[in-house]
Amino acid sequence: xxxxxxxxxxxxxxxxxxxxxxxxxxxxxxxxxxxxxxxxxxxxxxxxxxxxxxxxxxx
Length: 59
Known about the structure:
Blueprint (H helix, E strand, L loop, with lengths): L1 E4 L6 E4 L4 E6 L2 H7 L4 E5 L5 E5 L6
Antiparallel strand pairs: 1-2, 2-5, 3-4
């Protein structure tokens, strides 16, 4: 299991499965979103991902 949160700690998440296909993406959308030359992305099954704290902050 993996757990994480945003930098301020308001939102927390939990992943109960494996993270697959970890990639570095250099497309313009990922560069803009991360503010760097690339973004690192990992993919998980949606049924193994949950927001455990303050999901209302995401809308």
